[in-house]
Specification:
Beta Polymerase, domain 2; 4 helices; 118 residues; globular; alpha+beta; six-stranded mixed beta sheet
Length: 118
């Protein structure tokens, strides 16, 4: 698999392409969290936008890196879509679901980078 930073950048670009909001990259490596190295979290304003962001991420990652998704969940109702790339898990929420689950708060002791949307 390619470089994690390259994959993070590709995912971030794909989210920005579809106007994803409040993108954060949570680096879990120093916590010794075995499931993955990074969580990337963002939200959209509607289920339609959430679906578009998820599709954009999958397409751009496959096109630019050749990496295929290993697992996806939540596409049907698009309230919270999870895209699993092994070392990186992408969480795409509608705003209300993001505020309810507060994933950033659960991992508050990790290194969290806020990615500026335009």
């Amino acid at each position: 698999m390619g470089n994690n930073n390259e994959l993070v950048n590709c995912i971030t670009e794909a989210i920005l392409d579809k106007k994803g909001k409040e993108i954060v990259n949570i680096n879990l490596m120093k916590l010794g969290y075995a499931m993955c190295d990074n969580f990337i979290i963002c939200h959209g304003d509607s289920t339609t936008q959430v679906s578009a962001i998820a599709e954009s991420v999958e397409d751009k990652v496959k096109e630019q890196t050749g990496i295929r998704i290993t697992h996806r969940e939540g596409i049907e109702n698009a309230q919270w879509v999870l895209l699993d790339y092994g070392s990186i898990i992408v969480h795409i929420f509608v705003k209300g679901a993001r505020e309810y689950y507060k994933l950033e708060d659960l991992w508050g002791d990790a290194d969290i980078t806020v990615i500026k949307d335009e």
